[in-house]
Specification:
Elements lengths: L2 H24 L5 E2 L23 H14 L15 E9 L3 H9 L8 E8 L6 E8 L6 E4 L1 H5 L3 E2 L7 H15 L3 H8 L6 E5 L11 E8 L10 E9 L9 E7 L2 E3 L2 H9 L42 E3 L2 E4 L2 E8 L3 E9 L2 E16 L4 H4 L2 E3 L23 E9 L5 E23 L5 E18 L2 E9 L5 E9 L3 E3 L8 E5 L2 E4 L1 E11 L5 E15 L7 E12 L6 E3 L7 E9 L5 E9 L21 E7 L35 E13 L15 E9 L14 E4 L15 H4 L2 E2 L14
Parallel strand pairs: 1-36
Antiparallel strand pairs: 2-3, 2-18, 3-4, 4-5, 4-6, 7-8, 8-9, 9-10, 10-11, 12-13, 13-14, 14-15, 15-16, 16-17, 16-26, 18-19, 19-20, 20-21, 20-35, 21-22, 22-34, 23-25, 24-25, 26-33, 27-28, 27-30, 27-33, 29-32, 30-31, 31-34, 32-33
Length: 753
């Protein structure tokens, strides 16, 4: 063998050795894939939760087909229907009566028949009306019954119906036609011919019962940004109450503090030189007020949360289990997220937890904003919960669930990935203690929480709805507001109603009030309400009687009647309020769950207001009433357009009935006053704009149930803290060497628009 050959072989051998060494040295630096382990199996019958499941797309189609063939009247697809037509406005699950459901869930009774609630607009009748029909059984309907009169104690007048997308389109066409009567004014004020201006509705539609008259505010429409910050100062009042669209009229015009009878009158004043005009140039691209486009190149990725061995929760159909928690979830297309049969360690804590309404009430010196009281349920809190952005709206590793709805169309639609479920590490101990006295040890538990989230976009605002389940047996409900503020054209004494946030933009003050229904069943259906608070008493010290001590003591009281349990908004209420069971825990105290409210609500409408009864739930931060099947909701989608004669008035629920050992419901109002400021541009941030409440165990258990959590950590000074068996935290380094599998980014949220 030649020397040259030997040298070549030797070189190859050295190269091979070097490569192997490199592989060995870098092997641990290359993360392995995370090993997916199935979550702990819990003894829960998932199919039972289907009694609360939202309608499927197939069931909706079957109901539409049934109604078309069995009502004996022509039905026009709602997407094309005029006010003078008959149409199917919406479908939703008809939730069975509680007694029937509990017999099925708890006593082996028959499964309640599955039914749909159909809302129909009958415009092509001698007496136009809104009718609600229950249709069943699903999936193959064979009957229907009219529940309108029984449910609302009378017929539903046609003018109370929510405004449809088709109706808004016809109004927009009318406004654009009317704008053509003021061409020189539009060029001077807005550099526009009117076709590039967009209208924003206000609500309610009128000023007295029977009206369907609405102020519309006009804005510059800038593609790619929120038009809500670019008012042009022009607002129009449209009468759209007639069943014939051709008879709708523009009743009034407002511009920068002055009112006119028509756009022709506005043009005449301008041409005569009697109208002062503020010239607004058409906003351009990224320079427009409120642009959300990034101003800097992307930074390195921030921290990511991942699950080294897969999710520790389980989702099947509409049912979730997680470390002792069990919950059925759904989405009402109008009122939004709803949860049922919430159990912890096999015991039902809450039968129903549901969002009821979101009120946004504005102030301004412009007519549109000053008359606005949005009741978002009538627009569709659940319907407008769109697809969530993976990695921002929810963690990348979250479980995403599609939601189906049928509204203003005969064809079901799907909001893909519009609800997410994930476990969240808050980076805060749930509990901990470091002992530096006597024995030396550390004990603690990470605050890891299961979160159910949806986000609704209601015109300009985005509401983030969170339901959180803690290892301590506590349930947290939270809502954050973000999105764009709504604005008025700045003129006159505009700062009496907000702050100037742009050259001609007034951020108008408003309040957000949110209402929830909480049907607690604490250790059974029969509960009472107990308050606890502190007082001081002055006593002589018992050991010498020479000194006086200010001694705090606990004042307990059982509230006997509904009037006592209705706590006005913004008035101090007892710091501890609990639903109590007749049964004691190990220490002799009644098993209870405490309601703890976190809120910064504004002032409720004055009682002298003609529309106050329609939002009378807002009188109270908490009201506890006896549960009644005929009082399923604190409001109605029909309250928006006739708040002067409300279809449902929550105040009527409170009639001083006894609340001792009864099936009770807590009705909770949370909210905040928002005075927009410069930092609300481009968007309102979630920081400081979150409110909600807790349901916390109070003597329900004999000790904190989180002591049974497998995530607990304890080690002492006598242990080898680096040993994985003795200290779970020592195991993290090996568990964290895996890399999560993140699916490729995809977003289809624009497809349904």
């Amino acid at each position: 063998m030649s020397l040259k050959t030997v040298l070549i072989l030797l070189g190859l051998a050295l190269a091979t050795i070097f490569a192997l060494v490199c592989v060995l040295l870098t092997r641990e630096k290359s993360p392995r894939s995370c090993q997916q382990l199935p979550p702990e199996q819990e003894e829960v019958q998932d199919d039972q939760s289907l009694v609360f499941a939202d309608l499927t797309a197939e069931e909706m189609s079957q109901v539409v087909q049934y109604l078309r063939g069995h009502l004996g009247v022509p039905l026009v697809d709602a997407s094309r229907a005029e006010p003078s037509d008959n149409c199917i406005a919406s479908l939703d699950l008809q939730v069975p009566p509680k007694a029937e459901v509990l017999r099925f869930l708890d006593a082996g009774g028959a499964r309640p028949p599955r039914e749909a609630l159909a809302v129909l607009y009958f415009g092509k009748q001698p007496e136009p009306n809104v009718t609600e029909l229950v249709v069943g059984p699903l999936p193959r309907p064979a009957y229907h019954r009219d529940v309108t009169v029984h449910k609302y104690r009378g017929k539903l007048p046609y003018h109370r119906r929510p405004v449809s997308g088709r109706e808004y389109a016809d109004i927009t066409a009318l406004v654009r036609r009317e704008l053509q009567r003021a061409p020189r004014f539009l060029r001077a004020c807005c550099e526009s011919d009117g076709t590039d201006l967009v209208t924003l509705t206000t609500a309610p539609q009128g000023f007295k019962s029977g009206d369907r008259v609405t102020w519309f505010v006009l804005f510059h429409n800038v593609p790619g940004t929120g038009y809500y910050l670019s008012p042009v100062g022009l607002e129009v009042l449209v009468d759209h109450g007639d069943l014939q669209v051709s008879r709708w009229q523009l009743r009034k015009v407002f511009y920068s503090g002055r009112y006119f009878g028509s756009t022709a009158d506005l043009e005449q004043e301008f041409v005569a030189g009697a109208l002062e005009v503020v010239t607004l140039r058409q906003p351009q691209g990224d320079a427009v007020l409120g642009s959300m486009k990034p101003r800097r190149p992307p930074a390195p990725p921030g921290p990511l949360q991942f699950e080294p061995q897969g999710p520790r929760y389980r989702v099947r159909n509409n049912h979730i289990t997680f470390q002792g928690w069990s919950v059925a979830f759904g989405m009402n297309p109008n009122s939004g997220p709803r949860l049922f049969d919430i159990r912890y360690r096999g015991e039902r804590i809450v039968y129903e937890l549901s969002l009821q309404e979101a009120l946004a009430l504005y102030g301004s010196n412009c007519p549109g904003a000053m008359s606005t009281r949005y009741l978002d349920g009538s627009f569709g809190i659940g319907r407008f919960a769109y697809e969530l952005v993976r990695g921002l709206d929810c963690p990348s590793t979250a479980t995403y669930v599609d939601r189906h709805y049928l509204a203003e169309s005969d064809t079901p639609k799907t909001n893909q990935k519009s609800l997410c479920i994930f476990e969240h590490d808050s980076a805060l101990p749930l509990r901990r203690h470091f002992s530096d006295s006597q024995s030396l040890y550390y004990g603690g538990l990470r605050r890891s929480t299961l979160v159910i989230r949806a986000i609704s976009t209601l015109i300009n605002y985005d509401y983030i709805w969170d339901f959180m389940f803690h290892a301590s047996g506590a349930l947290e409900v939270r809502v954050h507001a973000t999105g764009y503020i709504s604005s008025s054209f700045f003129h006159g004494r505009g700062t009496d109603f907000g702050n100037r946030v742009g050259p001609h933009t007034l951020g108008t003050m408003h309040l957000h009030h949110i209402h929830y229904k909480v049907d607690l069943d604490v250790d059974g259906q029969l509960n009472s309400l107990e308050s606890q608070d502190m007082e001081y008493e002055f006593v002589k010290d018992p050991w010498s009687t020479q000194s006086t001590i200010e001694r705090p003591y606990l004042r307990r009281e059982r509230l006997q009647r509904e009037d006592e349990a209705a706590f006005p908004l913004n008035v101090p209420m007892p710091r501890y309020l609990s639903f109590v069971s007749p049964n004691p825990n190990k220490w002799g105290h009644p098993r209870s769950y405490r309601i703890q409210i976190i809120s910064f609500a504004g002032k409720h409408l004055p009682s002298s207001s003609s529309m106050e009864r329609s939002v009378s739930w807002g009188r109270y931060q908490l009201a506890v009433t006896r549960r009644k099947e005929e009082e399923p909701s604190s409001t109605s989608i029909y309250n928006q357009n006739d708040p002067w004669t409300p279809t449902v008035a929550f105040a009527d629920f409170i009639n001083n009935e006894t609340i001792t050992n009864e099936d009770l419901v807590a009705w909770i109002t949370v909210g905040f006053l928002h005075v927009p400021h410069a930092e609300d541009i481009p968007n309102t941030v979630t920081v400081g704009n979150g409110v909600g409440f807790f349901l916390r165990p109070y003597n329900y258990f004999n000790e904190d149930p989180s002591v049974d959590s497998p995530d607990s950590v304890y080690f002492s000074s006598e242990q080898d803290l680096g040993a994985c068996g003795a200290n779970p935290l020592a195991c993290l380094s090996s568990a964290a060497t895996c890399a999560p599998h993140l699916p490729p980014f995809h977003f289809g949220g624009f497809l349904n628009l």
